[in-house]
Amino acid sequence: MDFRELIAYQKAFDLSMEIFQLSKSFPSDERYSLTDQIRRSSTSVCANIAEAYRKRRYMNHFISKLTDSDAENSETNVWLEFSLKCGYISQEKYSDLYNRNNEVGKIINFMINNPARFGCSIK
């Protein structure tokens, strides 16, 4: 199986792409702060899931990379809240992205708590 088949990766990737498109409308003075931060954290969620899957031969490496992914996912939630409070996104859009972000977090945590189900060697 390829990491792109993982539900967590697919949902995180879709969310990241939506955030990327949405952040294009942020003010230009945010280019090197909020825009950059939210793009980096949301794309990092996907990258860490992919890395975790490739390191699944070693359970501790798998869990470590997923923990990094979960942390980046939480960071993305913070930047979404800033985007809302700064008036760059609507409450409705925030609620949608927040709920999807939380769903990704739940899936990542399921993977952390069930590494054997993802091909991890329990050594």
Please describe the structure with a list of short key phrases separated by commas or semicolons.
123 residues, elongated, single chain, mainly alpha
Along the chain, the helix and strand elements come as HHHH
Helix content: over 70%
- What is the straight-line distance between the termini? 22 Å
Work out the oligomeric state of the chains in this entry.
Answer: single chain
What's the story with the biggest beta sheet?
none
Question: What low-confidence regions span 5 or more consecutive residues with pLDDT below 50?
Answer: none
CA radius of gyration is 15 Å
Strand content: under 5%
Alpha-beta content class: mainly alpha
Counting DSSP H or I runs of 4 or more residues, the number of helices is 4
Mean residue pLDDT:
95
Shape: elongated
Tally the beta strands. 0
Show the helix and strand layout.
Layout lengths: L6 H17 L10 H21 L4 H27 L5 H23 L10
Helix pairs in contact: 1-2, 1-4, 2-3, 3-4
Overall description:
It is a single chain. With 123 residues, the protein is an all-alpha fold. The longest helix is centred in the middle third of the chain and has 27 residues.
What is the structure about, briefly put?
72% of the residues lie in helices and 0% in strands. It is built from 4 helices and no strands.
